[in-house]
Design goal:
Blueprint: E1 8-12, H1 17-28, E2 32-37, H2 40-52, E3 56-61, H3 67-81, E4 86-89, H4 103-131, E5 134-139, H5 152-172, E6 177-184, H6 190-195, H7 200-208, H8 219-230, E7 241-244
Parallel strand pairs: 1-2, 1-4, 2-3, 4-5, 5-6, 6-7
């Protein structure tokens, strides 16, 4: 895709799952990448592995709950790469609490999530404005669009991400900065694998029924959408949300139906 080669990217929560898939995609285009993650051990291992493959990659450890850490990430990226062309706001707290949600659960959901996204956007926009160009992609979710049982915290936080995307896109457009989001469906990330008891083969056909394509997605498929939104191919796209959900959000209450004919999985 045009406009990615040799650029500089910052990916929060980049040590695993969708974040790591974005990191690997950026590296495949010859980009330099800084990743941040709350998991120090996994972050260091990820950087060591990808550096061994020739990747220009750096790691900074911290918690998005800490406002200073947001500032430190940007300063670190400038130190290591000289600037930031792309930001993937990915790090998020998967707290699925409903009626019994505590104030602390609400605070972490919102502060690590949309507030953390907003702070990162504030910090990188200063740099991108000087450069005259930049792209930000926020990782949202199908949960931003629908009701799910017992998930007030997560769904409300992701819903806020979608509205934040539109508002920041409006205000940053005069600076040459585009802001978009992606809404993944059920993706085989750490949390989904954990929920499946690490038995992907068993749960693929079960959870696949929630999607028109009768399967869950892979992190790499979300990363591809993020690369598109960062690239010059999306030069006239901002303030929008791109579902990467295998048709999840297009289904009604009937789902795909037990007897529905199906032509394939791709």
């Amino acid at each position: 895709m045009r406009g990615l080669q040799g650029k500089r990217a910052l990916v929060t929560g980049g040590a695993q799952g969708i974040g790591r898939a974005c990191v690997e995609a950026f590296l495949s285009y010859g980009c330099s990448v800084v990743i941040s993650d709350i998991d120090n051990e996994t972050g260091l291992a990820t950087v060591e592995e990808l550096k061994a493959k020739g990747g220009d990659i750096y790691f900074i450890h911290g918690d998005m709950l800490d406002e200073k850490f947001c500032e430190e990430q940007v300063a670190f990226a400038i130190e290591k790469m000289g600037g930031i062309d792309f930001l993937i706001n990915n790090a998020f707290s998967f707290i699925a609490a409903g009626l019994e949600a505590t104030r602390n659960e609400w605070q972490r959901s919102l502060e690590v999530g949309p507030i953390g996204f907003a702070k990162m956007t504030q910090e990188v926009s200063k740099l991108m404005e000087q450069q005259g160009k930049g792209a930000i992609v926020n990782i949202s979710s199908i949960s931003a669009h629908i009701a799910q049982p017992g998930r007030w915290t997560y769904n409300a936080a992701k819903g806020a991400v979608n509205q934040l995307t539109k508002c920041t896109a409006l205000d940053l457009a005069p600076m040459g900065i585009r802001v978009n989001s992606v809404s993944p469906g059920w993706i085989w990330t750490r949390e989904v694998l954990k929920a499946a008891g690490y038995d992907q083969e068993k749960y693929e056909p079960i959870w696949g029924k929630y999607h028109m394509m009768r399967r869950c997605g892979q992190p790499e498929e979300v990363a591809s959408a993020c690369m598109f939104l960062c690239s010059d191919e999306a030069s006239f796209i901002t303030g929008t949300d791109l579902p990467v959900d295998g048709g999840y959000l297009g289904l009604g209450g009937e789902g795909i139906g037990e007897d529905a004919e199906y032509a394939g999985s791709n």
